[in-house]
Design goal:
40% helix, alpha/beta
C-alpha cells in the first residue's frame, strides 16, 4: 500500500493498494466496511479504482488509514474480515496512536498470536488481548481479569483447543463455580448434569464456535474435554492438562486455593473473572480478589487486566461498562483487585 498526501494539513489523503483482488473483501459487501469506518471515525471515504480517498479530522483520517492498512495485511495473510474485525482494527489503531508502537498496529498479525482451531483462526482484537494470548502461550498460570465482553474466556478456550489439537496437552478441563445471582443447585430441576449445565453454557458455546458439533460431542464423551463445576476438582491432580476456571470471582478463598493446587505436571491453568460482578453472599471475600493480592509477583504467573477499551461485543456494551465503572468510582471504589 502506498500513501499520497493531498493537503498540507493532513486531513485528506489517498491510499493505494497493490493487490486489486483483495479489495472486494477489504471494502466489504456494498462497501459496508468503509461505511463502518466512516460512521465510527467521522471521516469520508471514497474509492477510485485501487485507491481510497479519506478526508476529515486529522486524527480520524490517520486512524482510518492505519485500520485499513491493518485489515489489508490480514487479507494478505489469508485471514478473514468481518464487521467485528473492522472494529478491532480501529481499536488497535487508536491504542497505537496513544502509545506509539512503531507501526505495530499496521504490521501483519504475528504468527504466534494467531490461534488456530478447526472452524476458525482467531486473532487479538485489542492490545490487551494480544498481551493475553502471548501470556497464555508463555506462562503456566495466567489470570485474566476485567469486565464482560473482553474475550477472557473465549481466548482461553481457543488457546486450550489449539494446544489440544497440536498434541501439547492431553485434555482440556473447563470449570466454573455454580453460584449465580443467589440461586442454588438444590432448587433447580433435573439431575446433577442438568443442574450444572446452565452455569457452564458459556464454555459450551465457545467450544461449538471453534469445533464442529460432532467433534465437541466426541471429545466430551471420551474425556479429552471435561466440563465440570469447581466442586468436582477437589482431591484431583490435573496433569498434562489445560485447565480453565471461569467466573472465578464467585469462588471463595478456600475454593480458589484448592483449585490452584490441582495443577499437575505439564499442565497450564487460566483463571478468568470480573471482580466487579461478584455473586457471593454479601460480605464474603472473593477468591479471585484474594488470589490477586496473595499471588502478586509470584514467579511463573502472569496477570492481564482488561478494561472497557477491550470490550469486543456490541459497542453499547462498552458504554454500559463505562457507566457502571463511573458510578463505582463516584462511590469511592472501582471494584478491581489491587495490582500491587
Amino acid at each position: 500500500m502506498s500513501l499520497v498526501p493531498v493537503s498540507e494539513d493532513a486531513t485528506s489523503i489517498l491510499i493505494q493498494f497493490d493487490d486489486n483482488s483483495l479489495l472486494p473483501a477489504l471494502f466489504g459487501e456494498h462497501d459496508r466496511n468503509l461505511a463502518r469506518l466512516e460512521q465510527e471515525l467521522a471521516v469520508s471515504i471514497s474509492s477510485r479504482g485501487n485507491r481510497l480517498a479519506i478526508s476529515g479530522p486529522a486524527e480520524g483520517v490517520e486512524t482510518a488509514r492505519s485500520a485499513l492498512n491493518a485489515l489489508y495485511q490480514r487479507l494478505k495473510q489469508g485471514l478473514e474480515i468481518d464487521p467485528a474485525e473492522v472494529d478491532a482494527a480501529v481499536r488497535m489503531a487508536r491504542a497505537a496512536a496513544v502509545v506509539p508502537a512503531g507501526g505495530a498496529s499496521e504490521a501483519p498479525v504475528a504468527d504466534d498470536l494467531i490461534i488456530r482451531t478447526r472452524k476458525r483462526q482467531i486473532t487479538p482484537r485489542s492490545q490487551n488481548q494480544a498481551r493475553y494470548i502471548a501470556a497464555l502461550r508463555q506462562y503456566d498460570l495466567v489470570f485474566g481479569l476485567g469486565p464482560a465482553g473482553t474475550g477472557k474466556t473465549y481466548l482461553a478456550v481457543a488457546t486450550g483447543l489449539s494446544m489440544l489439537l497440536a498434541g501439547r496437552v492431553e485434555r482440556i478441563i473447563l470449570s466454573r463455580p455454580a453460584v449465580e445471582a443467589g440461586e442454588r443447585l438444590g432448587f433447580l430441576p433435573g439431575d446433577l448434569r442438568e443442574k450444572v449445565d446452565p452455569y457452564l453454557r458459556p464454555l459450551y458455546d465457545a467450544l461449538y464456535d471453534m469445533l464442529p458439533g460432532d467433534q465437541v460431542i466426541r471429545r466430551l464423551g471420551n474425556g479429552e474435554i471435561e466440563v465440570a463445576p469447581i466442586a468436582f476438582m477437589r482431591g484431583r491432580t490435573l496433569a498434562n492438562s489445560y485447565i480453565i476456571l471461569d467466573e472465578a470471582q464467585n469462588t471463595t478463598p478456600v475454593q480458589m486455593k484448592m483449585f490452584l493446587t490441582r495443577l499437575g505436571e505439564n499442565s497450564r491453568m487460566v483463571i478468568t473473572g470480573d471482580p466487579s460482578q461478584v455473586d457471593l453472599p454479601e460480605g464474603a471475600l472473593s477468591g479471585l480478589r484474594d488470589a490477586a493480592t496473595k499471588l502478586a509477583g509470584i514467579a511463573g504467573a502472569a496477570y492481564v487486566y482488561f478494561t472497557d477499551v477491550d470490550v469486543v461485543r456490541h459497542p453499547l456494551v462498552t458504554r454500559i461498562v463505562r457507566a457502571y465503572d463511573e458510578h463505582e468510582r463516584t462511590r469511592g471504589s472501582d471494584g478491581r483487585p489491587s495490582e500491587s
